[in-house]
Amino acid sequence: MAYPNDRKYSTDHEWVRVDGNVGTVGISHHAQDALGEIVHVELPAVGKVVKKGDGVAEVESVKAVSDVYTPVSGKVVAVNDGLDGNEGTVNSDPHEAGWLFKVELSDAGELAGLMDAGAYGDHAGNDF
Asked: pTM score, two decimals?
């Protein structure tokens, strides 16, 4: 699996794509594949202040309920309301239409601790 180069990845299988000072967050193809069919998504409240590593959302699949950890700190400024009733989008398009939430970054320096696509591909290949 080739992962998009325009974002950074966490060891917990979340990705963040930054535009200005806002990061869009989702789960990787690897994560959705390991989870199986996504049947419910619980998103954070807009306005919630989050810290890197916090569990801020949940995805429920036919196999399990899993926390989604934010790879960056800041304030949630948007959630993907389009997933309500269309949770399978996280499976079919995890790196684009299946995004989960957007965070206004409070510390852009945190991005340096995340992996690029190549390093994440190596990590994901050795995980699970």
From this structure: 0.95
